[in-house]
Fold this protein.
Amino acid sequence: MSWAWPERTPVTPYKLILRLRWLQTLSASLLLLVTTCSHAAEARIAVASNFRDTALAIAEQLEATSPHRYQIIAGSTGKLASQIINGAPFDILMAADQRRPRELELRGLAVPGSVMTYALGEMGLWWPEGPDALDLEKLTKLPAGQVCIANPAVAPYGDAAIAVLSAGSMDADWLDGLIRVDNVNLVTGWVATGQARAGFVARSAMITAKRGGEILFGTDDIVWLKDHPPIAQAMAVITRAADNPAATFWARQLGTGPIQSLLERDGYRIPQVDQ
Amino acid sequence: MSGRLLVEGKLARGGVSIDLSVDLDLSDPVGIFGPTGAGKTTLLKTIAGLERDFSGRVEVTLQGQHETWSVPARGELVPVHRRGVGVVFQEGRLFSGRTVQANLDYAIRRARGVGRAQDVSNMVGALDIASLLQRPVESLSGGERQRVAIARTLLSQPRLLLLDEPLAANDNAHRNGLIDYLIEWREQHGTPVICVSHSGEELERIASQCLVMAQGQIVAQGKTVDVIATGGDSQTAEAAFSGATVLSADAVTGVLSVQVNPGDADNLKQIKIGDQLTLGVSESASGLSAPLQPKPGEDERESD
Amino acid sequence: MTAADFQAVWLTALLAGTTTLLLMPLATPLAWWLVRSSSPARSVVEAVVALPLVLPPTVLGFYLLVILNPTAPVGAFWVSITGQSLTFSFSGLVLASILYSLPFMVQPLATAFRSVSQETLEAAATLGASPRDQLISVVLPAAKRGFLTGSVLTFAHTVGEFGVVLMMGGNIPGETRVLSIAIYEHVETLNYDAAHAMALGLLVFSFVSLWAVYRVASQRVEVIRG
């Protein structure tokens, strides 16, 4: 695995915003004349790190079909939620768990009734040079310091990894010795660069990294933990965005076909029942 | 050219209390004479308002105008920059990082005599600093620095001029020219002058009246010729004392305090400050008591 | 590097420039007071000014977050007069940077001011210069290098700020997404090429700034004419 990864240019909405800022007002007023449903608005979408690339793709799609503009801010779910509590100007939180959006709703920081699960994430154990027929029990052969998880304090995928491991026969000392990184994307990076021998990764992060040409992995090297409950990723519309048409549009569009196929492409499953 | 200065109060300095009480007639230049550590510079700084610890009284009458600069308890009433007191400091205190010209310009821009034209080139010539104008002050010799400092202070057109050993770092050739120029400048501007020096000869030329300070006290005040022996025309006299007691002898400052028997007081009248004395101690002397034989004219112990 | 990255570079320069320009007039009287004052409060103020040198930026960032968030009295007051939050905003970052970089401006200025002796100021006073005039005509010219050093250090230090921004600024494009945060985000999202480009740029910039400071410091004072 080489250190320098191939160039990739993520498609960002910022480019458009920068270049066309003066045009924006003009086009907004023009659109107001032709469209009756809504007028152009901007929304800041705070997304869990593992959802960043998917969110960028969604933003691109929505910007193509509406006058709205979106900014994607990525970070760990816990950090983003704490920032919202301290006044960060986000319009929507796309968390990697259900707990934080609900907590925001309880605190009165999210629009009541806006919390919904938008995707089910899948977690897997990636062990590039692991034994054949990977399973969790074999992981104890590795020293804990060579196994990487997302930090359970701020990253739901880390929480889930600990839950999976605790259910097995791993002892507490071994669990305490695991490498903890800030978010689940970094687990992919840590294992890819050999800084950890194995790690609990998000399927979405593996797919986007593979698509970007950043990593290679064989299907034998990963065991997807299908027996364990999927990680329910929920979102919330933040109170300040209650009347923001761009935010409302984003939330509404998540359930539509084109967006759902984007989610599936990136390794998420679609929740059957809206909450 | 009339004026009056009144200072009243004491100042503690390194455990020594300095009594600064003086009442000076400023119509004629005043000299201040005394050994190192006598408090001369402290007196000048008090007049200028630079002694922060001084909390006594300073009053002046300059150009017929009476002003109170400082009063006991309430401290400084008039800050340094509003007193109009020009001070030539012993060490010059030029602005470093600048040329001589820039130092002079600093004073010219802040000159007090509004609208009064100054003959700068004449002054620069008389003080022999014309060739130095473009030099940075760091490159000047001690004497040059002092002459620039004098020029700078004069160009600020002070209402009262204080000079602290203004000629000390200059050679004899410059010294005479400087004294002449200072006298001429004073005549022209009518500015009262107070000059500190340890040279009686110098003071006799500059100041007709004189204060003598020693160990923080003003020990004499009067016409310069009366209170200071100027060396050139010193008299020769002999006096025998029946007995005397050495009160203190300081090898560092060179100050010797002697108390003579009351019966010998008349002998003291012929001794002037600045006289050079020869002390002879007779065989009967022992312990702290010693009879004295003053013999003016012979070099034994200078008063400075 | 993407347009968003250039935006981060521009925002960083804007933040550092604003901080330096605002800090200079604030730090000048403060440094002057620290040098001249004999008040017992001086050592206390000196210690407070130097705090950012030893405190982890996260501590400063945390307290600013606590004090300035819109539900706290100070934060709420700011929101009531400007309609904007001080946390997660550019204005908040400017405020934080001013506090965070305070010693980097105050200390070079204080050193420069200290080089002007009491005797020199007394001489200026006897020439008729008021305390204000002394400051402008004697102290400030002598402190030119102090201003230059302080400005370069403040600018560079603000450019290199991370912990404080992370705590109270977050990662909002065009508002608080400064260089260091952009680099962090690139690393977090495995975008190592962009991280390399920006990190190397920052490294070169920091080196050049410090080199400039040491170069200025080693030069002789130029002679002021007129």
